[in-house]
Write a structure and sequence with these properties.
With 51 residues, the protein is mainly α. The protein has three helices and no strands.
Length: 51
């Protein structure tokens, strides 16, 4: 029961316009991790095999 309460409570918040403005200002249109399609496929398929 406690896990259910915790899961639901993470969605119990609201962002006002000031918060949204700050979040929008963080977007610099930069990627911090560049991965080719081949690298992405290897990563995804390696995870599927290990799980």
């Amino acid at each position: 029961m406690l896990k259910s309460v915790i899961r639901v409570s993470i969605f119990d918040f609201a962002l006002d316009e000031k918060d949204m403005s700050v979040m929008r200002s963080l977007n610099q249109e930069k990627r911090f991790y560049n991965m080719s399609l081949e690298q992405l496929e290897r990563f995804v398929f390696a995870r599927e095999i290990n799980e």
